[in-house]
Amino acid sequence: MIDKFRGTGRPLLSVLADRNSVFYKGLAMFSNKALYANVTNDRSTTWYTSAISSYDPFADLSAVTVNYLPKYAPVILDPDNPVQPAAPKTEDLPVSNRIVQSGRKVAKLPVVLVYTIVVPIGVLIFLLNSVLQRVLSQRRIRLHSNQEEWHGYQSFPLLAEEIQEATDHMIEDMHHEIPPHHLPPGLEEQGEGDNSESEEPLTDNMVGIQNSVVALASEGSNVAAEKQRSSRTKFPMLALHSLQFRMIHNLDSLNIRKYPVWIRNVRHTHAAIVVRVPKAESSKEGRVVVGHWIDEVFQV
What we know:
Shape: globular
Strand order of the largest sheet: 1-4
Largest sheet: 2 strands, parallel
Oligomer: single chain
Strand content: 5-15%
């Protein structure tokens, strides 16, 4: 949403999801369109981003009852009815349950303190230590090669890569802990916006490709989109940008099957869902996802 695409002056993702773009029309020509999204522990992207959704029913997994896809439990959820709100809890809970609930809230406090106080200090120490170790390493190299002068310019790219990698990991972890924001009650219709409004037409010069040669093949494919919209009323709507709501609306009309995936045995599920490390013990749940795609979705 930050990059501007060529001569359009619009964000790249907004152009890709534009009904008039060749990208959207090309995607519509596929008979089977499916996506798989981690419901939790995906440190690289949130569920509502990967699932192209305007709501997040998995923000609190203890508040919902999940419905699994037959033969693929307990990994893949039913795309038509993945969750439903859990039955309301009575006030007359046993004392032991109240103690457990209070303990969970208290247990979150150290995490908040770590990310607000300890992490910034740790990153600063790490960066200073990286610079110091780089200088000491270059000094040892200089002494070993009997060079009188040291040109440290070549070491800066490697140092920059280390700093960038450490910063990325820190941002991913902090972003994972930040709870999503929702629209206040009564403003959800405003969040949906007037999605029927036609967007500014894209010209061939804008996208750099012959746009008129691709036929739109998404007519009559709004059944899944209607099911998804009807289920949104059960959960609060996320506070997204108007362009994001437009993109979600357009892509929902393509009848994309959205499979929520709940991987439990791995702390970082972003790589596990695609079995990035095939020999790892943690790949068992990811293999269920890949197997479903092969058996149920993929066609030549």
